[in-house]
Amino acid sequence: MNKKTSQKIKKTAFLATAVASLALVGCTTRFVDYTLLSTKNVDLSKASSFKRGPNRVTGEDSQIIILFIPTSGTPNLKTAVDKAIESVPGAVALVDGVVSMRGWWFIVGESAIIAEGTPLIDPSLPGAKASLEADFLVSFHDPVSGKQVAKPVDKATYQKIKNLANLHNDAALSKLLLGLL
């Protein structure tokens, strides 16, 4: 291999590394910590009966960016909080959580707001009892409604889900999860 070919290979490798590095760059910024956050009408006179959920939940609203141009506006905090609260039956708010902002861009990119916290559950609401009594809460995408749903499951069902996921048995896993609906 001659000297010119070697230099071209080095330049190409450097350029490829630089482009790959830029393409993989992203940033998540902790925006705010909170004690109580809700977008719902909460009857605070019943606050003493509210219970903390067993697991933390996350809701996200994101928008795609193409060449510096957002495709559908900006991410919305209310939507992210709504998704987190609505993922748990009976939840009315989130407690002890954090709101983060995430963004990345290289020709095509994404901007997102993420709300995470422990659900505060009103036991008098439909579905709340199951959420409070469950050993585990499993969240997955419902292809019929197009929404993220969370279902309470017992330990045996959770172990089945975990084993199928570890084995990458997507067909059996989908069948099991859709059977929970």
Features of the shown structure:
181 residues; 2 domains; extended
Protein described:
By secondary structure, the protein is of the alpha+beta class. It folds into two domains: 24-124, no CATH class; 134-181, no CATH class. It has helices spanning 3-23, 77-86, 128-133, 155-166, 170-179, and strands at residues 26-37, 51-52, 57-66, 69-70, 91-106, 108-121, 136-142, 147-153. The strands form two sheets. Strands 1, 2, 3, 4, 5 and 6 form a six-stranded antiparallel β-sheet that branches. It has a two-stranded antiparallel ribbon with strand order 7-8. A hairpin with a 4-residue loop joins strand 7 (136-142) and strand 8. The longest helix has 21 residues, at 3-23. The mean pLDDT is 84.
